[in-house]
């Protein structure tokens, strides 16, 4: 085992004199009574004050209507569950009668009974109404 006195960690720092220990240090503190000089023009300062007096801009801005209200989805679900016969009127005036089998964001599938089912893109639909109610 090595002698612990020879290691550098065990050595003590050299003794300091009282003069070195109690050195007068000047603390620099800002004066709180006098405000710091401003470099911005008076007009900019007024604009900033006017902006802070108003309500926050986020409270003034109104969010637009939601992108999707789910009313369309609700309508399709009701027609699918009830197997309600509907008439789909296309933009070119053609009418397709049948029951809505399923739908997604872009199209609906109309089952026409004895005829083949049709996949109809929503942008080509003018309106839809229930077959028993007559034309709106």
Q: What does the model show?
A:
24% of the residues lie in helices and 22% in strands. It is of the alpha+beta class. The N and C termini lie far apart (105 Å). The model has no long low-confidence stretch (mean pLDDT 78).
Please tell me what the overall shape is. elongated
Bin the helical content: 10-25%
Q: Which stretches are low in confidence, meaning pLDDT under 50 for 5 or more residues running?
A: none
Terminal-residue CA separation: 105 Å
* Structural class designation: alpha+beta
Strand content: 15-25%
Instruction: Determine the number of helices (DSSP H or I, runs of at least 4 residues).
Output: 4
CATH architecture of the domain at 83-133: Roll
The CATH topology annotation of the domain at 83-133 reads as SH3 type barrels
Q: What is the strand tally?
A: 5
What integer is the average pLDDT?
Answer: 78
**Biggest sheet: strands side by side, in what order?**
4-3-2-1-5
Q: What's the multimeric state?
A: single chain
For the biggest sheet, the summary is: 5 strands, antiparallel
Indicate the radius of gyration in whole angstroms.
Answer: 41 Å
CATH uppermost class of the domain at 83-133: Mainly Beta
